[in-house]
Amino acid sequence: MSAIRELHRQLTSKERSAVEIAQAQLDQAQAVEPKLKSFVSLTAEKALAQAQAVDAKIAAGEDIGQLAGIPIAIKDNLCTKGIRTTCSSKMLENFVPPYESTVTGRLDEAGAVFIGKTNLDEFAMGGSTENSAFQTTCNPWDITRVPGGSSGGSAAAVAGGQSPVSLGSDTGGSIRQPASFCGIVGMKPTYGLVSRFGLVAFASSLDQIGPFGRTVEDTAILLEAIAGHDPKDATSLKVKIPNYTQFLKKDTKQPLKGRTIGIIKETFGEGLDTQVGDAVNAAIEQLKSLGAAVKTISCSKFDYGVSAYYIIAPCEASANLARYDGVRYGLRVQESEAPNLLSMYNKTRAEGFGDEVKRRIMIGTYALSAGYYDAFYLKAQKVRTLIKQDFDNAFKEVDVLVSPTVPTTAFKAGEKDDPLSMYLLDLMTIPVNMAGLPGMSVPCGFDTDGMPIGLQLVSNVLREDLLFEVGHAYEQSTNWHQQQPKL
Prior knowledge:
By secondary structure, this protein is an alpha/beta fold. The chain contains 15 helices and eleven strands.
């Protein structure tokens, strides 16, 4: 059942007050936090003030929206006015934004209750939260394993019962991959559907904010609240936002009759864990039983996604992170340690950025340098176009594409110590960002170690309705989303 709908029922029936719900959620978050380390900051004062405002509206007899009084965790790369926003980096350890991001502003207006800012890989660069400058978040299903990344804190907070829903950002799989690792639903919208104003930029042509929840319905409700045009974001799309919950079909034996599902052939090759492949194939059979026609689709340029991404994303990161120079805001090494301007730049950036961030800045700076732009960046952009064409051709034949979300289940912290093995985990999610498409991960099973497995659903531009329709139909016919870790 939708956590948002149930909490809304409790509020409107006056079974519980918003303050009682907020306090109970904060208590739960604090109780589990020593095990999970999901949060950079818990914001009890802000949460209780927001909850009191909702209770005042209810007491005055005013109608409240579906998100009023609902606790939510926010990834700590979204600017929150007056609340520390660190990007899990020493560079921004003490940064308090003077403005609100568009998405958090919309949630605040809707009456949502912000219980805290969640841990991430530094500047959203990573797939395990091990690159956080502060702590490694633990997977609620096995605290010796990672929750994925970069939105690992947001995923772990939902899976671990610290928050009913949360927000993350997805540049190459950073919502869908942790959703898969943590056994919850994670959704990356069409590029431009959700405003990026106030999202601390990693790779501006790829970044997109999206929701996490235990159910598809919760992510649908949350997406509706944050989506929509924003004049502050030049890439924001001017489109009407539908009521996404209307696409969640109920009580029909074959809710997917008339839909065609495409299996991406290239995602079932070398490197795919056998148990993950088996679970995803079983999920595809389940989709067939729900009335969907299924066919295999080849996206031949899919395999080039990782190579092209790790040129384009670092190039954009190199440009975006140039602003952290110790002059305007963020960390600044004291003059006594850096006697001149160049020394101050060097020491500030050396101390402020972690290894993975430095690695990507250097790759990007090199690829953009004189004599290498055409050989690397321009070529990667051409590959990006070919990947998009593959998807365009696929969607002439099918409504939704399916694949494993990640080739494996969650690995143990410290197990993957080379960057390449980490980058290859994004093999199935990256092409979706390169093409600007919406994608979703829904739970579809567990391996023999009890770790969750995710099914990735991908639809064409602005066809989030299809993801919600197919994802909800699958979810309602299985019980994977009802499983919860024992902490």
